[in-house]
From TrEMBL:
GO terms for biological process: endoplasmic reticulum to Golgi vesicle-mediated transport; intracellular protein transport; vesicle docking; vesicle fusion. The chain crosses the membrane at residues 85-105. This is t-SNARE coiled-coil homology domain-containing protein. CDD domains: SNARE_syntaxin5. Residues 14-76 form the T-SNARE coiled-coil homology domain. It comes from the Eukaryota. Gene3D superfamilies: 1.20.5.110. SUPFAM superfamilies: t-snare proteins (SSF47661). Keywords: Membrane, Protein transport, Transmembrane, Transmembrane helix, Transport.
Amino acid sequence: MEMSMLQQVVPQQQDYTQSRAVALHNVESTITELSGIFTHLATMVAHQGELAIRIDDNMEESLSNVEGAHSALLRNLTRISSNRWLMIKIFAILIFFLMVFIFFVA
């Protein structure tokens, strides 16, 4: 009787050992898969960090360009305004000489 009990216990232990081995293998493959996922994630984060730095640099350069364009527009506006007064003065002088010519020559 003891022998038959012992024969029943041994296969149960072997089944238990095999199921534990399969479970450990599944855990190992899951850990390996997670390692690959985290490596891929780290690569993506590093790539996104580089893109964020480039975007920040481009924004600073764009801000500098906008400020330079604003200054250039203000300078041109000042020149146009001063040129407008110059043209008005020249036009007034021409009208004055035209009137003097008409009154004294005609």
